[in-house]
Amino acid sequence: MEMPNTSSLDPLMVTLIGIPGLEHVQFWIGFPFCALCMVALLGNVLLLIIIPSESSLHQPMYVFLAVLAANDLGLCASIAPKMLAIFWFSACTMTFDACLTQLFFIHALQGMESGILLAMAFDRYVAICNPLRHSAILTPSVLGQLVGVVAARAVILVSVGPVLLKRLHFFHSTTVAHSYCEHMALVKLAAVDTRINKAFGLFVAFSILGFDMVFVLVSYTLIFQAIFRLPQKEARIKAFNTCTAHIFVFLEFYVLAFFSFFSHRFGHVAPYVHILLSTIYLLVPPALNPIVYGVKTKEIRVRVVRIFLLERGRKKGIIPSGPYFLPTFHESPAHSITTIFGSCGKRREYQS
């Protein structure tokens, strides 16, 4: 597909071409991306069912995990439908305002994900370095405030980007060489001075991703120092095991994020390589996060097995259907996350 070089004053429509250079195979590329989205959908929905319904999981770590699951669902919903429509049905056009809306949600949810990971690192720091005060520090109100600050920071900072793009009235092309509306991909279309847009994009990236990554590293440096000071080997292993899932998720998110960010602005990689990497960066963490935490958390593993065995028994007619045959759920699966905030203060102390 050729990219027409048509100028436009205040464009009403834009065209996304998908993955430039791979248009002839992107129909097939859509299938693995769709599989990632389905895994993310199933895994994160299961977390949002299991965490509210399992009283032993009403702890700050799992509250943050539930918020992360909801955030990941929103991220997949923001990118996947339009991207798959481009790949499979050549539905490449969308209004300029819709493109800016998608841009806002994608980048705001990215920023929220980074903030949630920082909050989870802080929870691990308190649980291991100051376990006796864990309940007093991470109270339900503090959890709510942390989530609110993370969301407000991402929304406020990212919302300025679409406003700055809206002030660019002249574009040398309305064809976006991407599979979704991304900030720099739109900035590059402008035929006017975009130094403010580029500077603001760097500012947001470093004030969110850079800030969070530095404090995550500081948190884990202090955590490892505390772990290595423990006198017993078994205690050190147990404390380290509580962090392994978090470490994997942090590395997965930040390595992909910064590789995509720097290759887009300063690297010399082929456009299709960058777009594939940036799409993988958005879709892989939502798919892997539930798997990683599910494997590392016994309560989640047990509940998932129960859910699938129950469904299998119903299909075979062994277990009748109906709400009276769900004795393993202590609370309604539809229980809201706000209920968890209210019950966190009643949990047991973390063990170092």
From TrEMBL:
Recorded protein name is: Olfactory receptor
Principal subcellular localization:
membrane
Please list every transmembrane segment annotated in the UniProt record, as residue ranges.
27-50, 62-80, 142-165, 199-227, 239-263, 269-293
Gene Ontology CC terms: plasma membrane
Report the residue ranges that make up the G-protein coupled receptors family 1 profile domain in this protein: 43-293
Keywords, ordered alphabetically: Cell membrane, G-protein coupled receptor, Membrane, Olfaction, Receptor, Sensory transduction, Transducer, Transmembrane, Transmembrane helix
Which gene specifies this protein's sequence?
A: LOC110195122
Give the record's membrane topology: Multi-pass membrane protein
Localisation per UniProt entry: Cell membrane; Membrane
Gene Ontology MF annotations: G protein-coupled receptor activity; olfactory receptor activity
The keyword Transmembrane helix belongs to this UniProt entry's keyword annotation: yes
Question: Mind telling me which SUPFAM superfamilies this protein's record contains?
Answer: Family A G protein-coupled receptor-like
Q: Which InterPro entries match?
A: GPCR_Rhodpsn (IPR000276), GPCR_Rhodpsn_7TM (IPR017452), Olfact_rcpt (IPR000725), OR51/52/56-like (IPR050402)
Question: What family does this belong to?
Answer: Belongs to the G-protein coupled receptor 1 family.
